[in-house]
């Protein structure tokens, strides 16, 4: 079962080979021991070559050693375990010859008395060289020699995992790889070919040895229990184990080499394998041993046994909340082993959802809910509700809890309340909460869930003063719990949303950072937390940090859930708008306006809606969000217009009215901000800012009042909005000192803002100041007029005549447009203008 090894050599063999060079000055007496195929013969060939290279005659005797005489030089003896006693005694007598180097190679089994005596004599001169499994590094070096390049780590791992480093199998795999070529997928084909050959060779083993190997491959620990089918005494078993090790079929620890194990199980008749597997389960049960160590292997080998299935379910239950990916695999294996699929369907769905496999979780639950009786119904409902929430369809989450009913919701009442509040059903939320147990279980996750419900309810009952600390505590506890439960949202995300709406950017950032560090709610929650972290960075006027978090979120997700996709698109819009990047804003808006169609409005997705409301106004496409805004206002009315959630949307609507130059649309939202001022500090600041905008737009304002309003916006987390207000006021101020003061305020609040272009036409300083400082529009109204005429092919003079400005002013407009789009050539400018003007050029 061994083959020649031409490229593999471990460190111990290399050390022995190096000693040959000193053989002229000192004798080399050595024993080389190793299992079949460990490289003993090849090592002797290499030693012979080294001896001959230094002029030492070499003798390679056959089996008739006892009848031969040997001259001075070196004698190399292979397969000494196969020699008879006379031959071994003859070799032993040569150990004392001072003119003869002696190297003897043998397997650890069989080990007759004469060989033991010879080995002892040899080891008096130097420790025996034991050729054992190769290391990963040695395998990598050998693979590099075979394929002519550094092997992929996956290839090295494959060879190591399947062979355990046993040289004869490593050689086979690499030789097969060489024959097949190191193409993608070659490893699996290589393994199939080796398995076919091994299966044949194993069938040629003596029956007793084959049975012993099969018992070990199935999972019997011969030190504790021997299958009755073997009917061997202990001494005979020891001999068979030694023989198997001598043939290189067992690892040093006594386990069957993995690839040999697979070949045994696949080539032995199935009924024979099953009889051993059932015997193993019976034996372990009789001895009251846990089946967990062997359950997975037996299930993967195809055994269907209720005892194995139950053991796998217990293992999966143990890791469901902390390692959902592993739990998912274990539940699948349990089902394959005979477990009733419906009885564990809710747990399988929970594991799938927590692993980010929403589609799979939904399919499992769809099948489960088709029947009248749903096992583990509360878990199933929690999971289905979480799946709907992650898809951005919180109304279906609430409907799922209504289907369950208040009488059955019990400890899930806070989750039901969150879903119902999020969709505007305040009365339904109260019914659910009133049915919850007065004293729930005191576990970390259950306490965190109760605090989540309390915090969300507090957020609609008043200001953030009660909601935010409650949600922060919920986040801290959930992170400490280290579990991934089915939730409509993570407590850190809810806390961050409340903090953002309260203008507490630092608090939002610290909560999210702690949750990300603690891996709150597992990998499926990470993208949303990162996107919210990006939102905080955007609000803090740190666009680079925001983009870094976005990249991390998309990398962590692979494919974002619809709810998170909406957040991503709104972030792209917000960053482009704040960076005054017109082409990027056009592209981002087109993606966002499509993304929002996939996600109905709910309370916890108002943040991206508010950003898109402002962007839509800038793009003159507010009509695209009319239905979403109608839904949002209706939802907020059903909840009693809670200031924490309503005030930012009113502010976004104020900004939209300003951008579209529709002061009539501004009035009701400004009034709403004033009404909410008594309950909300943020509303008070925004109301003052709204009044300041009105005075600026009317052309009659007090610069100090405007500056105070702008800085107030910064204090509630709206630094960029404050910069826009100050910049716009500067553009309309008459006194140069007021202009300078307000521009300084704008730059202070938004350090990345640009100074007004030099050399601009003195008749239009206000328009240029607004555009350069605030990024108030993709293109100003005048620039859009110029852009349309450029696309019509007009020159500077013709453009000036068309809109009654001088050619020099036209030149300055075009220079600013080129700078804004960062283009060098006329063709690039035309492309960007077509993109920016969109349908206007059709």
TrEMBL record:
<dbReference type="InterPro" id="IPR036388">
    <property type="entry name" value="WH-like_DNA-bd_sf"/>
</dbReference>
<dbReference type="InterPro" id="IPR000792">
    <property type="entry name" value="Tscrpt_reg_LuxR_C"/>
</dbReference>
<keyword id="KW-0238">DNA-binding</keyword>
<keyword id="KW-0804">Transcription</keyword>
<protein>
    <submittedName>
        <fullName>LuxR C-terminal-related transcriptional regulator</fullName>
    </submittedName>
</protein>
<keyword id="KW-0805">Transcription regulation</keyword>
<dbReference type="InterPro" id="IPR016032">
    <property type="entry name" value="Sig_transdc_resp-reg_C-effctor"/>
</dbReference>
<dbReference type="Pfam" id="PF00196">
    <property type="entry name" value="GerE"/>
</dbReference>
<feature type="region of interest" description="Disordered">
    <location>
        <begin position="750"/>
        <end position="771"/>
    </location>
</feature>
<feature type="domain" description="HTH luxR-type">
    <location>
        <begin position="772"/>
        <end position="837"/>
    </location>
</feature>
